[in-house]
Design brief:
Layout: E1 4-5, E2 12-15, H1 21-35, H2 41-44, H3 48-64, E3 68-74, E4 77-88, E5 93-100, H4 109-124, E6 129-135, H5 139-147, E7 151-162, E8 165-175
Parallel strand pairs: 5-6
Antiparallel strand pairs: 1-2, 2-3, 3-4, 4-5, 6-8, 7-8
Helix pairs in contact: 1-3
């Protein structure tokens, strides 16, 4: 297994695999309400079985080269993660996403981790467009897209039903020619 330092204390990024389903469930349980405000992950991972099923789905995506998932670890615990929810290498597109428990916010971990995976996707996999879809109310996630140098492409009005409410979804993206390069804390090469 590899660890990519995230330049913030002992925080590292590493693959998140089915055998770590207990860690994922504990992470979600610590931040269920916070994590579930805008994304469905907290609703999908509610038991050891659903945590394993979720991670098995990403193992299958990795094997098919259609998605990936990595965990953000700090203080010896899984505190969040980043992923390519979808990845179409042939067409050069991918959709990135993230989650983080409240205790790990405000340290730049998501921005650093997403920088690592975007750099990998563009430089190593030949992805041309990385997309970020975010509820218009999720100002923290919109701030990440801005810090990543993404462009706001538009809004899908009332496109996402979550917890009985309709949310506008903003589409942000960065294209390979716009990508400024590897992060100052080191480039992911695996």
């Amino acid at each position: 297994m590899f660890d990519v330092p995230l330049g913030s204390g002992d925080a590292v990024l590493r693959p998140l695999e089915p055998w770590q389903s207990g860690d994922l469930l504990a992470n979600i349980d610590r931040g269920r309400e916070f994590i579930g405000r805008f994304i469905g992950l907290a609703d999908a991972v509610t038991s050891p079985e659903t945590a394993k099923t979720f991670l098995m789905g990403y193992a299958e995506k990795a094997a098919a080269d259609t998605g990936r998932i990595w965990g953000i670890h700090a203080g010896g615990a899984l505190v969040g993660g980043v992923l390519f929810r979808t990845m179409d290498v042939r067409n050069g597109t991918a959709e990135a996403g993230c989650w983080l428990e409240p205790s790990a916010t405000g340290r730049g971990l998501i921005t650093r981790a997403v920088t690592v995976i975007i750099d990998w996707a563009i430089r190593d996999r030949g992805i041309h467009r990385v997309e970020w879809q975010v509820s218009s109310g999720n100002t923290a996630s919109i701030a990440v897209a801005t810090r990543l140098g993404m462009t706001r492409d538009g809004v899908l009005r009332s496109a996402y039903a979550h917890h009985g409410e309709r949310h506008d979804i903003e589409i942000w993206s960065v294209l390979a020619p716009e990508w400024t390069g590897p992060p100052p804390f080191g480039r992911h090469t695996s």
